[in-house]
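Researcher: Let's try something more involved. This one mixes different molecule types, so please make sure each is placed in the same coordinate frame as the others.
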Amino acid sequence: KAGVTQTPRYLIKTRGQQVTLSCSPISGHRSVSWYQQTPGQGLQFLFEYFSETQRNKGNFPGRFSGRQFSNSRSEMNVSTLELGDSALYLCASSLETANYGYTFGSGTRLTVV
Amino acid sequence: QKEVEQDPGPLSVPEGAIVSLNCTYSNSAFQYFMWYRQYSRKGPELLMYTYSSGNKEDGRFTAQVDKSSKYISLFIRDSQPSDSATYLCAMSENRDDKIIFGKGTRLHILP
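Model: All components are placed in one shared frame. Result:
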C-alpha cells in the first residue's frame, strides 16, 4: 500500500516568488492536512481539506492557500515568499477524521533565499 | 502560554532503561491525545492514540493521560538504540478538529 507522497522533496525559491507543493494521500483517505515544521515553532497547522472543502484552518496569512481535488490529491500554494517561509512542509492524510491518526508524508523542504 | 508544552531535550538514556516523556497542556477541552515519533528526514508516524483519561499499552510503549492535571506521558520500556528519535505529543478537542502538536523531545538511546 503506497504511503503519502509529497513532491517535490526539495525546493529552493527566491523571495517574492510563489511556490506550489503537491500531496497524494493514501488511497481511500479523504482528509488531507498540511503542517509547517520549523526548529523554532515545531509543527504548526496550516489547513485541512475533506472532500474538496476546507474544514479547518490555522493562523497563517492569506499568502498560504490550498485546495483538494476530487481524487483527494491536494496542493498548497505560498505566494510572495518570505525568508521566514523556509521550512519543512508536511502533508498528512487520514480516512475520515484526523483523530484516528494521521499518516504523514516525508515532506517538502522549502528554502527561500 | 502555549497550548501544548513539551521539553525539547535532548534526553540521553542508556540502552535498556525506562524512558519517560511528558507534555502539559492548557486547553481543558482536549479529549484526543496522540504520540508521534519522527526520525531524521522523515515525517512523524503515529505511535499511540488515546481518548480521554487513562492508560493504554502497546508492546514496550505505555501512554497515560491525566486530564485533571492536564498532563500526558509516554513510557518506553527496555529502550533500544532504534528508539532514538524526536517524540511529539499531539491533541485535539473533537474528532473533526485540527490536531495541535508539541514541539517534540529529542531522545538519544546510548548503546
